[in-house]
Amino acid sequence: MTAPSLLHASRADDLMRAHDLDALVATSAENVTYASEFWSLSQWLRRRPQVYVVLPRDRIAEAVLIAPTNALDLLASTEPTWISDIRRYGASNFAHSPAPDSPAHAEHARVSTLLALPQQAGPATALAAALRDKGLDEGRIGIDESGMSPACLEELRQQLPKAAIVPADLHFRTIRAVKTPAEIDRLRRAAQITERAVEACFAEARAGVSERELATIFLNSLIRQDARPALTVLGGGPRSALPAAQPGERRLSPGDVLRLDAGCYYRNYRSDISRCAVLGTPSDRLRTAYGAILAGQQAGIEAIRPGVRADEVFAAAMRAARAGGLPGYHRTHVGHGIGIEGYDVPNLAEGDRTVLEEGMVLCVETPYYELGWAGIQVEDTVVVRAHGAETLMRTPRHLRVLG
Amino acid sequence: MTAPSLLHASRADDLMRAHDLDALVATSAENVTYASEFWSLSQWLRRRPQVYVVLPRDRIAEAVLIAPTNALDLLASTEPTWISDIRRYGASNFAHSPAPDSPAHAEHARVSTLLALPQQAGPATALAAALRDKGLDEGRIGIDESGMSPACLEELRQQLPKAAIVPADLHFRTIRAVKTPAEIDRLRRAAQITERAVEACFAEARAGVSERELATIFLNSLIRQDARPALTVLGGGPRSALPAAQPGERRLSPGDVLRLDAGCYYRNYRSDISRCAVLGTPSDRLRTAYGAILAGQQAGIEAIRPGVRADEVFAAAMRAARAGGLPGYHRTHVGHGIGIEGYDVPNLAEGDRTVLEEGMVLCVETPYYELGWAGIQVEDTVVVRAHGAETLMRTPRHLRVLG
């Protein structure tokens, strides 16, 4: 692989031109993986490890990846990044013996090749050198400020006194708002893995089963599908009304609503979907309320197309939910972008005037939480296509009625 | 609960006195949970949500917790925080109907009580008001800079022009280095859950089984024990030599080393342990190398006691591993603190002159990665007690020889 598949390179170039930037530098776990496809484990697990990707304007093919020596083994697996210019910093913990020339040792050979790269003193020094090599030491550099340590930023400023360094976390969010086909593939898989896990959970939901037992079924299904847990909201009966209900010891009773609002990580991409079930025949009140939120979500989905503003989708969904049976329906948002982060641009909310573009991926949701009663929700993930929304999901959106 | 059990309050007070601070403010997911016991889901899932805990010096009982209205349901579960002074900001998405006065609706009643609190305009406004209420608006305030958004920090400075605001992320790390009994309980559970999952994995490890299949066994065991995955390094044969080996399609063969370096989240606390197995009779070379790293780890553990420096533990472990059969053994560290983060203070490394204190919890590890051959490792979690290290673990540390 020699070209980015997650990074929307032309969108990054356009943004740099629009903001008069000569380069962008990714520094957070999400932005580094987005820009390089490299999954820097330690950076995903904690905040401090410094990994950077330099994206020079109009020559993104010349991108540079800067990583600690102790992460090189992750760069030795098959196609971990499309970037060929890799710089390493920090000491090595590897011992060497003559590696057998066998396919089983191909990763070892690749680690050895990477270890032969010169060792830079530290991340800021390596970044300054990379920018200098690209002729950008007097340039205007947008640095994603969310992952760079204050000490490294200060050191970079000292090493490149003529560079103009500006924050770029929001710029990365803007670029990431429109997804590439490779991103959409991962998001589709993530959504479908999650809905299968939800169905596995519904298949075992009956009176007497605890929320915690159902959560174990849900999570084990994610694991078996090679995904990892992210959000697991699961509440039965009155607990369905708690927006972030964490699965507890409560056991389901006849008549209970069961609400899941859940997601996973699949190849670093996220899902966030919701489905509800009821144990036994739904009451009229539940039927009406569910009909209203489904009508709201449907109207939101139908409003989606390129050129429409995020707040217009919000208004359409609110109007339909109110007209559909919940006249007092009130929400701050009815969805959000999703990608390598769970909340990407835009927010389907009042006041968000982002214009929808082809390739945006959106979660559309109309939850209803009534204290003293129950909570219901339906949430689907869709792609903005030229003629409207295309769902990434396979399961129906109606309220499940369980034995 | 009306007093903190995770937060080491006297240590926080001592540190504030030593650094002439009138209050500390926690802002990151880890520091907020540590200070308040409140698990703010959205903050743990992503960076942007603003949740704060104000800890006034010498009157930590008067602490204030500031949270978004949409997180109040998580504050309505049983004993989510010891803090009674809760402030909320942002709009509510709740509808209300008269709540039945039943135990099943106790959480609803508590949400209603919290919703009756005045709604503050935003997080910075709420924080400024809390500091003013505590008479701290001209004080010297240490703010954990890692979780506060730049915009909120700027707004706070404008609202409290006479306060001196200094960074405090490192101060929180210093306080957190010595664990309370409640923290040690969670760390013990996390370590033991993980070792049980490792043993479950070893029980199924045989020629023909893939790394991915073993990882599924490991992860499902974590889930069943009410833990969540964190780090899962699992490599067989040559892949055991890759420090961060991610479980892949490779199947085990006779003679393979199988190395796990793995951890979980249990009630937000972390584990990080390592065990190795071999399929069939170990070679002399493997026996010798494993004996050396075990001797190194043992020497490190034996060196641990209050008053000893972190770099002295490092030196003891290195010396013993070299004397024990790996004369060229080389490492940058032989372990680290662990707590609500996977890497807490201190680092058992050359140059870390931190003096060990009773109550520190340390992972002690002596991995050996040899390209061209294999990787082996042993890692245990111990508490620093008055007379030496007490292990938190139950399983033996020898190389497992599997059928």
Question: What is the structure about, briefly put?
Answer:
The structure is a homodimer of 403-residue chains. By secondary structure, the first copy, chain A, is of the alpha/beta class.
N-to-C CA distance of chain A: 50 Å
Q: What is the overall silhouette of chain A? A: globular
- Greatest interface and its residue counts? A-B, 69 and 69 residues
Q: Could you tell me the number of beta strands of chain A?
A: 20
Q: What's the average pLDDT of chain A?
A: 96
Strand line-up of the largest beta sheet of chain A: 6-4-3-2-1-7-8
Molecular structure report:
2 copies of one chain form a homodimer. The first copy, chain A, is 33% helix and 24% strand. The first copy, chain A, has 2 domains: 168 residues, Creatine Amidinohydrolase, Chain A, domain 1 (3-Layer(aba) Sandwich); 222 residues, Alpha-Beta Complex (Creatine Amidinohydrolase), CATH 3.90.230. The longest helix of chain A is centred in the middle third of the chain and has 24 residues. The first copy, chain A, has 11 helices and 20 strands. The model of chain A has no long low-confidence stretch (mean pLDDT 96). Chain A has 403 residues and is α/β, with parallel strands linked by helices. In chain A, the strands form 4 sheets. In chain A, strands 6-4-3-2-1-7-8 form a 7-stranded mixed β-sheet. At the A-B interface, helix 3, strand 5, helix 4, helix 9 and strand 9 of A face helix 3, strand 5, helix 4, helix 9 and strand 9 of B. Strand 5 of chain A pairs parallel with strand 16 of chain B.
